């Protein structure tokens, strides 16, 4: 084999190796990790129940649309009998200008009003409320919007014991551990780490938020 042919063979071999390596990496990234379970079928609100104003929630183009009078959509489905303690939760979210919403965890069903139990992970990029997306409301507040309205972003919640970490597009926004002497605000006395279900918040008629790809993975 002459030098030019040998050189071409080496270059070709490297190219093939890089191609196969990139394919393997892509497959590893796209493959779902073990233990993740979907909480939303992308077509209906099966497994979810809204209080006070059910018309605030509907499904459109594979996403849960939230717009209307105050209401909360509680997960009441079969996964873990809708009772979670330690977990990872992931959702793709998109806000409209002025939107205010949130994802509650460790909460429980109530007929009306703002959920008294559990914590709320704030979803708000431009609403007049100053607590922005990724805040752990009334526990660790974030004053700066990490994303813009009109764009899908990934909101990831990891809860272990009395610690919650909130990520937006892979960046840590909040990292809160409940102190031994924790005293939540009087109107949120149930804002403690415990166990319970998830809920999506419908805040007001001028606010529109969309959620899709809602997934959970239970941790020990």
What this model shows, in words?
This protein is mainly β. The protein folds into two domains: 1-31; 36-218, Jelly Rolls (Sandwich). It has one helix spanning 3-30; strands spanning 37-38, 48-50, 57-60, 63-66, 71-75, 87-95, 101-107, 119-123, 153-160, 163-168, 171-177, 197-202, 209-218. The strands form two sheets. Strands 1, 3, 4, 6, 9, 10, 11 and 13 form an eight-stranded antiparallel β-sheet that branches. A five-stranded antiparallel β-sheet has the order 2-5-12-7-8, with no helix packed on it. The longest helix has 28 residues, at 3-30.
The main sheet comes to:
8 strands, antiparallel
* Corresponding CATH superfamily of the largest domain: Exo-inulinase, domain 1
Number of H- or I-type helical stretches: 1
Q: Whole-Å distance between the termini?
A: 59 Å
User: Runs with pLDDT <50, length 5+?
Assistant: 2-31
Order of helices and strands: HEEEEEEEEEEEEE
CA gyration radius, whole angstroms: 21 Å
| Structural domain tally | 2
**CATH topology (fold) name of the largest domain:** Jelly Rolls
CATH architecture of the largest domain: Sandwich
Helix/strand/pairing class, anyone?
mainly beta
The CATH class of the largest domain is identified as: Mainly Beta
Shape: globular
Tell me the β content: 25-35%
Total beta strands:
13
Helix content: 10-25%
- Summed over residues and divided by their number, the pLDDT gives a mean of 88
Short description, anyone?
This protein has 2 domains: 1-31; 36-218, Exo-inulinase, domain 1 (Jelly Rolls). The chain contains 1 helix and 13 strands, in the order αβββββββββββββ.
């Amino acid at each position: 084999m002459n030098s030019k042919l040998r050189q071409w063979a080496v270059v070709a071999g490297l190219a093939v190796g890089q191609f196969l390596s990139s394919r393997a990496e892509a497959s590893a990234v796209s493959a779902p990790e073990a233990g993740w379970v979907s909480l939303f079928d992308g077509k209906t609100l099966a497994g979810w129940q809204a209080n006070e104003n059910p018309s605030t929630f509907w499904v459109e183009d594979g996403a849960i649309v939230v717009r209307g009078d105050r209401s909360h959509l509680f997960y009441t489905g079969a996964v873990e009998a809708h009772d979670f303690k330690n977990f990872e939760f992931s959702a793709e979210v998109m806000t409209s200008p002025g939107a205010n919403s949130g994802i509650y965890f460790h909460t429980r069903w109530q007929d009306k009003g703002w959920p008294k139990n559990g914590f709320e992970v704030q979803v708000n990029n431009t609403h007049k409320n100053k607590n922005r997306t990724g805040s752990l409301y009334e526990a660790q507040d974030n004053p700066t919007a990490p994303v813009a309205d009109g764009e899908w972003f990934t909101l990831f919640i990891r809860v272990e014991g009395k610690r919650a970490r909130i990520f937006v597009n892979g960046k840590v926004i909040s990292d809160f551990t409940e102190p031994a002497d924790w005293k939540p605000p009087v109107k949120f006395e149930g804002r403690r780490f415990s166990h319970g279900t998830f809920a999506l918040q419908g805040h007001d008629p001028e606010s529109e938020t969309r959620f899709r790809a809602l997934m959970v993975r239970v941790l020990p």
